[in-house]
Amino acid sequence: MSIAYQIVVCGSVVPDPLQTLEPVTGPGGPALKNEMMLPAILDPWASHALYEAANLAKNSPGSKVWLVSLGPKAKHQQVMMTVAQKVPFELVALDGPASGFTEAMEVAAALAEAIQAIPGLDKSKLLVFGGWESASRGAGATMQMVGERLGITDQFQGVDELKIAADGSLEILERIEGGKHQISKCAGAPALLGWATGNLPEPKNNPQVGMVNMRTVMPALQKAKPVKLAGEGLSFASVSLPKQLRETKIVKDKSADDIAKEIVEWIKK
């Protein structure tokens, strides 16, 4: 028996990680140098979650996908021109900061509030997807707090695969320590899944899907709710790029054991 799910994907607009990202300290606190000038993309982990959500909705007739995204409105418009051509979804946009210098608790509160405001939301059919990690908010705690605020206690992190059984139960492949996986089972919705890389490739651009999505994307951007993240109690002593250190030594006629010992001694220092 096929179940119609309501799948909400939490994602964020982030600077393209292929660009040089240089942190600076400004009047409002830490920020990225020329952040508004940098090309933006949908967070890579959130992208995996979105593709998995769309695939599940495609195989579960009657299902629907929402993308709840927090970021600057101007960047949203730039990114959605590309993302909207990938898979069908309805956008719920929040106009706010997308940098990595925000408090995870405040971000989770804003996302949870936006999810709860979705018209006709049925928790018995709700699956919340998101990135296990993030290219900007790599706290590893945002999705967990979103689930807690929504009253969802069945949470799975580091997910690589989701299978739906005939009785509607969920079988989830989760990453654990030591490069291993564990198989978890859940009776059904509601549940929250923080995705790792999943198993699906990036969908090809489909202009027809893009045209359908843009009918709802543009109105969603126009009425994007402004979100202010106060960052109360949050402070940064300094922000800087990691220092590069390179020490090269050319040695001949030395055994592998001696080389290994020397490397260990260098690391200990």
Summarize the structure in words.
Helix content is 29%, strand content 27%. By secondary structure, the protein is of the alpha/beta class. It has one domain: Rossmann fold (3-Layer(aba) Sandwich), CATH 3.40.50. Strands 1, 4, 5, 6, 7, 8, 9, 10, 11 and 12 form a 10-stranded mixed sheet that branches. Strands 2-3 form a two-stranded antiparallel sheet. A hairpin with a 2-residue loop joins strand 2 and strand 3. The radius of gyration is 21 Å and the shape is globular. The mean pLDDT is 83.
Helix and strand topology:
Layout: E1 6-15, E2 23-26, E3 29-32, E4 40-42, H1 44-59, E5 64-71, H2 73-83, E6 90-95, H3 104-116, E7 126-131, H4 142-149, E8 155-164, E9 170-176, E10 180-186, E11 191-195, H5 207-222, E12 225-226, H6 256-268
Parallel strand pairs: 1-5, 1-7, 5-6, 6-12, 7-11, 8-11
Antiparallel strand pairs: 1-4, 2-3, 8-9, 9-10
Number of domains: 1
CATH top level is: Alpha Beta
Can you summarize the main beta sheet?
10 strands, mixed
- Rg calc: 21 Å
List keywords for this structure.
12 strands, two-stranded antiparallel ribbon, 269 residues, 10-stranded mixed sheet, globular, Rossmann fold
Summarize the entry for a quick read.
With 269 residues, this protein is α/β, with parallel strands linked by helices. The protein has helices spanning 44-59, 73-83, 104-116, 142-149, 207-222, 256-268; strands at 6-15, 23-26, 29-32, 40-42, 64-71, 90-95, 126-131, 155-164, 170-176, 180-186, 191-195, 225-226.
